[in-house]
Each structure stands twice: as C-alpha cells, then as structure tokens.
Amino acid sequence: MILGAHLTITAGLAAAMDLCVELGGNTFQFFTRNPRGGKQRDMTDGEIQEGNERRAALGVQALVGHFPYTVNLASPKPDAYRFARDVLYQDLRWGDRIGADVLVVHPGSHVGEGVDAGIERIAGAVRHALDGYAGRTRLLLETMSGQGSEVGYEPGHLRRILEAADWHPALGVCLDSCHLFAAGFDLRTPEGVAGMVETFDRVIGLDRIGCLHLNDSKTPLGSHRDRHELIGRGHLGRAGIRAILENPFIRTLPVVLETPVDDIREYADEIRAVREILAERD
Ligand SMILES: [Zn+2]
Ligand SMILES: [Zn+2]
C-alpha cells in the first residue's frame, strides 16, 4: 500500500524523503509554496537531483504536491483570480521539474457568484495552465465538502471542468474521504464506498483518479463542513476507514493523511493507526 502524510519540503527534498520513511510512510504530500501564498520555492538542480536519488534509494513511491489554499481559481476578484491562474501555471511546471507525480488543487469558491460562474473561471485557469503542457506531472482537482461557496462537492462539477479542458490527459481528480463524507457520500460501509467509486467511474472515469486524501471527519454525513479528524476518531470511525481502504480500487491509489496533528512527527502514530485498522481483519 502507498501510504503517507502531508509533510514539508522546507528543509529540502532529500530531508523530506528521510522524514517520510522515518514516519513509516512511502509517499508524502507538501505545499508547492507557502500555504498563504508567497513566492515559489527556489530549488537548484543539485537539490532536485539529490532528492530524487534519495527517493530511489528509500523507495518513496509517489510525490504529491498541493497548491496553497489561498489559490482561488473561481475568485470573482480580478487580482485574486490572476494570482491563482499564474500560480497554477507556474507551479505545475515547477512540480514537473522536481519530479512530482501529481499536484492537487482545490477547485475554488465562487464567493456568491454561483456554481456556473465558478466553474467557468476554474476551467479558464485550468485550460491556461495546460496550454502547451507536456510534462508527466498530473494536475488533480480535489473533491470538496461544499463548505461556504466551494465548487467541486459533486463529481459533476469536476466533470464539467474536465470537459471544458477537452479531457487533457494530464488532468484528473483527487478524492478526499472527509470532504466526500461531508458532501453526502456515506463511506462507513463497503457498499457505500463501492457506490462512491462506481459514481466516480461513471462520471469521471477511474483512470483519472490519481490520489486519496484519507481523513476522518469531525462533522456528520452531509454536513458540508470541512473539518478533518484523526484517523478512527471521527464520524467515519475505524469501520469507515477500513471500508475505504479495503476497496480494491482505492487500494491502488497513493493515500495521504491530512489529519489534525499538533506536530508533523505525530503522523507516525496516524500511519500506524491506519495499518492497525487494516490488520484487524487481515
Ligand atoms: Zn484534502
Ligand atoms: Zn479539507
């Protein structure tokens, strides 16, 4: 199984590979730049090479980048939209250069303008980012909870963005168990998980799904609130986490934890908790 957590690359790419393996993982996620925006992180060719050599030596499987939360591809404010569009374009190429397999982005919030207007703006930014792009890093739109004016809580929203981008081969989707549950997909049973997978197969196509964020949920089914909880401690619970990970399709995806730990090192406990839940019935 490809399992890890959201870490950081501020100490360098090679150091992040070490940390990933120390915590018991074989994949990890990191922000492409400071979560509150900021400038793109400089990385020399030497640092990238060292990181990728360490990656090969340690057997780190998937490298998952995440765009900053401040990037709102659906923003009606021209300055915010231009910033988001530029970051999407630049960080996709940067991610490809450093060897990321996928980059995950929240589709965005329409801030009162409506889902249709939001989708149109997101699609414009995605088309711009993929124009002339021939890299190997895939850009993944994340499934959202529908909190506030978020776009992307229905698979149909994501499909419309994919269609508007002419199903560019580098474009796909990242599932998030907390967001899906909050959006109304009951993932507490194997049947519920299979139903969700079947829906995404029909609407998006499973070959487009490139990653799973595994988070428990502090809030109930259909709450449309984005509140992650530690593994097994929320409304999904241990049975839900097990149902999700025992799904044969889900098992093929890189799985990244974004649960609310106080210190990044506590992800060792979270990774262990996942393995224990899976071992209960193996
Ligand atoms: Zn997520
Ligand atoms: Zn979330």
UniProtKB/TrEMBL annotation:
Residues in Xylose isomerase-like TIM barrel domain copies: 18-275
Sequence positions that bind Zn(2+) 1: H66, H106, E142
PROSITE patterns, sorted: AP_NUCLEASE_F2_3, AP_NUCLEASE_F2_4
Cofactor: Zn(2+)
Segments passing through the bilayer: none
EC primary class: hydrolase
Keywords annotated in UniProt: DNA damage, DNA repair, Endonuclease, Hydrolase, Metal-binding, Nuclease, Zinc
Record has Membrane as a keyword: no
Binding site for Zn(2+) 3: H179, D226, H228
Positions annotated to bind Zn(2+) 2: E142, D176, H213, E258
Catalytic activity: Endonucleolytic cleavage to 5'-phosphooligonucleotide end-products
Cofactor note: Binds 3 Zn(2+) ions.
Single GO BP term: base-excision repair
UniProt EC number: 3.1.21.2
Listed GO MF terms: deoxyribonuclease IV (phage-T4-induced) activity; DNA binding; DNA-(apurinic or apyrimidinic site) endonuclease activity; phosphoric diester hydrolase activity; zinc ion binding
SUPFAM superfamilies assigned: Xylose isomerase-like
SMART domains hit by this protein: AP2Ec (SM00518)
Record keyword Cell inner membrane present: no
Family assignment from sequence similarity: Belongs to the AP endonuclease 2 family.
Matching NCBIfam families: nfo (TIGR00587)
Function: Endonuclease IV plays a role in DNA repair. It cleaves phosphodiester bonds at apurinic or apyrimidinic (AP) sites, generating a 3'-hydroxyl group and a 5'-terminal sugar phosphate.
Protein name listed in UniProt: Probable endonuclease 4
Source organism of this protein record: Caldinitratiruptor microaerophilus
